[in-house]
User: What shape does this take?
Amino acid sequence: MQRLIPSKYRFISGSVLKLIAVVTMLIDHIGLYFLKDSQIVLIPFEDEPFTLYVLMRSIGRVAFPLFAFLLAEGFIHTKSRLKYGISLAVLALVSELPWNLVHTGTLFYSKQNVMFTLLAGFLALCAAEGLKNKPVLLVLCLAALTAAVFTLDFDYGSQGYCFILVMYYLREYAAARALAGICILPSRWVGGFAFLPVAFYNGKRGFINGRVLKYAFYAFYPVHLFVIYLIYYHA
Assistant: This one.
């Protein structure tokens, strides 16, 4: 793999990347749900003040590129892609309830949570590898997944879905992968900061090992959304 940082300086494990991803996601969601109407100004620019809300949302733009990178890594290294896919599907379905609640206060919301985007990306990777010698079937599968992303309105939409594929196909090219984070995602240059910790990734799993920590990491997404819902609507 083409790496920008020599191996002796790469000290960040996959677990640390996961921790950065969930922390930045949490910061993003706190800003989104609790500071949207806040006027806490950090830097009083003349045209548009730089507020705490903007800072927290900007930090949050790091989360999705990291989740997409980790998904591509997980796809490559997992012992069972079937179990991996089932875990993503279950997580997406379980997360839909708190996702709907936190956005509308009801059980219904037209947009689908980001775990469905990750699931669609994972299925696209499965198709890309399993059907690489059957181009017609591959195109049909990718078209069907793209249609699902559009029709069901997955979070991050087609940009997020395509970005996962890019993470997989550019896995050997660190600089190009970082550039893709800047060019493809709606966060633009802010998303590129996600690849600073990725540059120091050592390819090791890290401390999130075993079922307890593994499923605690999975559970964080729906649980934190539900906690935000309780605070936002009932505190």
Q: What stands out?
A: The longest strand covers residues 41-43. The chain has a mean pLDDT of 91. The first helix runs from residue 14 to 34.
